[in-house]
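Example (one chain per record):
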Amino acid sequence: MKKILAVLIVIGGLSAAAYFIALKAGPAGGASADETRRFFTVKAGDLAIPVTETGVLKAKNSTRISSKVEREVKIVFLAKEGSRVKKGEDLVKFDPTEIDREIENEKQNIDAAKAQFEASKVDYDIQKTDWDNEIARAKLSLEEAEKNYDKYEKGDLPLKDRENRIKLEEAEANLKRAREKLEQMPELLKEGFVTPDQVEQKKLEVKKAEVAWESAKSDLDLFEKYTKPLEIEKKKAELDGARTALESARKRIEAKSKQKDAEISSIEVNLKERAARLEHLQKQRLEMDIKAPTDGLVIYGEPGQWYGGNEIKVGTQVWMHQTIITLPDLSEMQATLRIHEMDIGRIRKDMEVTVTVEAAGSKSFPGRITKIAELANAGGWRSDPEVKQFDIEVTLDGRDLMLKPGTTAEVEIVIVRLEGVLYVPIRAVRGIGPTTFCYANEGGELRRKTVEIGLGNDKFVEIKSGLSEGDVVLVENPPTDLVRIEEADRQRLASEKRGHDSASASQAGAAPGGTGGSGKKED
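Predicted structure:
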C-alpha cells in the first residue's frame, strides 16, 4: 500500500479535462532508430490490492533455552550456531568458579554449625543435670522445713506446754504443802514438838516454794506470750523460705532452660537454613551446564525479537530467564510482522497471504493470518513514537519447508480484490499537473489519452475511464519529441500557476485593508 501511495503521488490526482494530440511515431517523430517500445494491451479482469510488509521468519513451535541460575553468569561454552544437536548434548556451560566457592564455604559453615550444635546440646545436658540437682536440693530443704514445722507444731510445742504446766502444778502443790506445814508449826512449837529453828526452816521452805511457783508461772506465761508465737513464726518463715527458694529455683532454671532452648533452636535453624542454602546452591550448580532437551537447530538468542540484547557468545554475561539459544521445530514456520494502524481495519484473521523469502531464492509460500494483536504499539526505539503499529502473526502452509528462522520475509496481504476492472501497468501512466494520461498506439501512431485512475498495486493500476479493453498503450518512456512536448506543457502549466498566484496576490493587496493599498481606512 505504501508503494501504491507513492505512485499515486507521482502521477498526480485523478481526472481533468482531456485533450488529444496525434503524432507519428518513428524517425520522422524524432525517435532514434534503436529505441525499443514496449506495449501493453488493456485488459479487463481481477486486480488484487495488497499490503506488503517485511517480517521475520520463526518456527511455530520453539524451545527457548535460558539461564535458570539466579544470578548473572558468564558463558564459557556454546554449541555452534547453525549446528544441529541431539537431545542430551551440551548446549551451554557457565563459569562455575563463584558458585563452587560458595558451595565450599557453605559446607565449612555447616560443619562449624554442626559442631556448635552438638557442643550446645552437651552443655545443655550438663546444665540440665545441675538444674535437676538444684531442684532436688530445694525440694529436700522444703521437706525438711515442712517436717520441722510439723514436728514443732505437733510435738515440741505441746510437749513444752505440758512441761511448763506440770512444773507450775508441781510448784503450786509444793507451795501448798509448805504453807500447810507452816500453819501447823505454832501448835507444834507450843506443845514442844518442834523447835523455833524448825519453824523458821518451814518459813524458809514456804518462801522457796513461792519463788518456785512464781518462776514456773513466769516460764509458762513467757512461753505462751513470747516463745511459742516466736518459734511458730520462725518455723513458718523457714518453711516459706524453703518454698520460695524452690519456686525461685524453678523459675530461674525455667528461664535458663528457655534461653538455652532458644540458643540451640537458633543454631538448629541456622544449620537448617545453611543446609537448605547448600542444597539450593548445589541445584544451581547443576543448572550451570545446559543440555539439549530435544533435537534441534541451534540459533542464538530469540529470532524475531523486536528489542535489542547482549550479543550471545563465549564470555557474555547473561541473566536469569534471558534467552540464550532457541531450538526451533522447523516443521512448521511462521512470519511475524507489523501493520500500520491505517491498514489494520482491513486485516482479518484467516486472510490468505503470500510470503516471499529472499534467502530461499525469492521463493513464495502461501499462508494465512493466525493472530492479530489487540493493542497497538509505538514501534521500536528507532521508530516514530507517533506511528502506531499492530503485530501480526502469519502461519505458512505446509510442513518441512526448509526455511531458517530469523531470515527476512516479505508478506503480501490482499486487502481489496477489484473484480472485472480495466488495468494497465503503472509505468504506462504519466502525469502533468492534475492530469493523468497514457500513450495509446492507434494505427501505428502514439496518441495521448487522458485517463482516470483508481486503486493499484506495485505493478498495475485500475483505469476507470479514458481507455477501453483491447487498447494498446506504451509502457516504456515515450519518444524524445513527445517528452519535449510534455516538458513544454509542464512549463506552461507552471507559468500559468505563477501568473494566477501573482494576480491573486495583487487583488488581495488592492482590497480594503489589503497590504497593497494606501493603508488609509475610509470614513
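Caption: The CA atoms of residues 57 and 335 lie 4 Å apart.
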